[in-house]
């Protein structure tokens, strides 16, 4: 009987356009864990033909490996979109060129993933473009299209919590102790760790970054500590672990909260003794490695719940830095927006754009669950499709629709101040002291904390500026 099992019939279907059997099997297995069924097309002609089949009519998304059509990838995307306009397409590529990202998105791609892509990131992107209940298109978080800056000057913001975190990080960077950075996804934890490494005494020594979310659970031990030949099935050669690679330098462990209890204990013992033992080895060796680790959740809560080793948490949190979410520092959105637009304008295929007061007000009214990373993605997407010289509120139609009346009121009041609101929600003027404090914070962010320039632009002396900082309770730590 020509029918599929009920479990498969109900599964969401993704078409993978790929001519590499090994990668096809890997992506098929990853997708299956998230409830997807994968059909594979080895070339463009087969993919187009499969759109008309029974399975093709039930597709929820397409994954396209750019290697298959090569230089014609954007033409294939446009062809697929012309036949199925509502079907989201994600392109996989080894190229990190922003120009290719721009061309793919203009052709109709929903996202652009640079290989190797972690299973979590791949499935997050797939879920995002196919979830009807969540905002799509302009508010969907893209994978990063621009290389991150590696210094503290690129960390934009004047909110007290944020400046305090930067000051703490700058001080810790000069030391040798382990550092834990906590904060929600997208708040800039990895970027801050890179800046810390660049400002540290170990800046010229080895650096390795291990994303624990990207490493298969059974391989973490080997990735961190290495393994000996024959230590487990498939271990044909000796592998050097990240600790040994980073001897004398810095090891960044992203999302340490994902470490299994067994490996938490193994890592705690290694940090206590300073000795690393590869899997299957009868020997160990001493290493000098500084750990910078991140966590999306508070490790204290995990320790209290019995989910994280208390001794390891204490060792890792010799210095604990907490990055606030963007919704707690909305006053930084204008400066962040201008900073991102300046960087976006430097990318091939994109123009330098200004941003209107109405757009800034609209952006400041959203709560940004994806934080700074999501803001950058939204601005990148808006810049790709912008036909003028400036982003306006009309550049973000879904955001206007989501915020509704709140967005309309916010945009209408934006003309009263650039990045500074003059009125309270009930329509009354804000106190002059609060407005003055916002103006000073805006100036500090705009001029990157250069206090002489801030004072000159505000038309006051440096001593007067510092007195106002003290009177208004503004922390200008850098």
Characterise the protein shown here.
With about 475 residues, this protein is of the alpha/beta class. It has three domains: about 5-135, 3-Layer(aba) Sandwich (Rossmann fold); about 160-320, Rossmann fold (3-Layer(aba) Sandwich), CATH 3.40.50.300; about 330-470, Helicase, Ruva Protein, domain 3. The chain is about 45% helix and about 15% strand. It is built from 21 helices and 16 strands. The protein has helices at about 5-10, 20-35, 45-50, 55, 75-85, 100-105, 120-130, 160-175, 190-200, 220-225, 240-245, 260-275, 300-305, 310-315, 335-345, 355-365, 370-385, 395-415, 430-445, 450-460, 460-470, and strands spanning about 10-15, 35-40, 60-65, 90-95, 110-115, 180, 205-210, 225, 240, 250-255, 275, 285, 290-295, 320, 355, 390. The strands form five sheets. Strands 2-1-3-4-5 form a five-stranded parallel beta sheet, with helices on both faces. Strand 1, helix 2 and strand 2 (about 35-40) form a beta-alpha-beta unit. Helix 15 packs across helix 17. The longest helix is centred in the C-terminal third of the chain and has 17 residues, at about 395-415.
């Amino acid at each position: 009987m020509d029918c599929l099992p009920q479990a498969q019939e109900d599964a969401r279907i993704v078409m993978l356009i790929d001519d590499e059997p090994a990668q096809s099997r890997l992506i098929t297995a990853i997708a299956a864990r998230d409830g997807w069924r994968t059909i594979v097309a080895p070339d463009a002609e087969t993919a187009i033909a499969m759109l008309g089949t029974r399975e093709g009519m039930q597709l929820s998304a397409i994954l396209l490996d750019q290697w298959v059509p090569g230089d014609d990838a954007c033409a294939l995307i446009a062809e697929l979109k012309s036949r199925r306009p509502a079907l989201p397409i994600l392109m996989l590529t080894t190229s990190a060129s922003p120009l290719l990202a721009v061309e793919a998105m203009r052709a109709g791609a929903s996202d652009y993933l640079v290989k190797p892509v972690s299973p979590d990131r791949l499935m997050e992107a797939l879920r995002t473009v196919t979830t009807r209940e969540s905002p799509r298109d302009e508010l969907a978080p893209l994978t990063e299209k621009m290389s991150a800056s590696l210094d503290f000057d690129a960390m934009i913001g004047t909110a007290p919590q944020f400046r305090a975190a930067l000051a703490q990080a700058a001080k810790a960077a000069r030391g040798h102790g382990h550092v834990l950075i906590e904060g929600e996804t997208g708040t800039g934890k990895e970027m801050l760790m890179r800046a810390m490494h660049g400002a540290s005494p170990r800046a010229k020594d080895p650096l390795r970054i291990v994303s624990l979310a990207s490493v298969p659970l059974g391989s973490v031990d080997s990735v961190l500590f290495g393994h000996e030949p024959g230590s487990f099935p498939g271990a044909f050669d000796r592998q050097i672990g990240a600790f040994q690679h980073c001897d004398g330098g810095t090891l960044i462990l992203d999302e340490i909260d994902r470490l299994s209890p067994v490996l938490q204990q193994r890592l705690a013992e290694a940090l206590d003794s300073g000795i690393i033992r590869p899997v299957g080895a009868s020997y160990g060796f001493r290493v000098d490695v500084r750990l910078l680790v991140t966590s999306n959740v508070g490790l204290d809560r995990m320790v209290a719940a019995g989910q994280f080793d208390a001794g390891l948490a204490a060792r890792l949190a010799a210095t604990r830095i907490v990055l606030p979410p963007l919704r707690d520092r909305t006053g930084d959105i204008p400066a962040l927006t201008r900073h991102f637009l300046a960087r976006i304008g430097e990318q091939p295929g994109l123009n330098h754009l200004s941003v209107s007061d109405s757009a800034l007000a609209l952006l400041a009214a959203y709560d940004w669950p994806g934080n700074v990373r999501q803001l950058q993605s939204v601005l990148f997407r808006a810049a790709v499709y912008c036909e003028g010289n400036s982003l306006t509120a009309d550049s973000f139609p879904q955001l206007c629709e989501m915020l509704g009346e709140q967005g309309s009121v916010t945009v209408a009041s934006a003309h009263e101040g650039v990045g500074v609101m003059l009125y309270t929600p009930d329509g009354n003027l804000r106190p002059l002291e609060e407005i003055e404090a916002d103006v000073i914070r805006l100036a500090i962010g705009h001029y990157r904390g250069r206090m002489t320039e801030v004072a000159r632009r505000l038309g006051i002396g440096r001593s007067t500026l510092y007195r106002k900082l003290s009177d208004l309770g503004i922390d200008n730590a850098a």
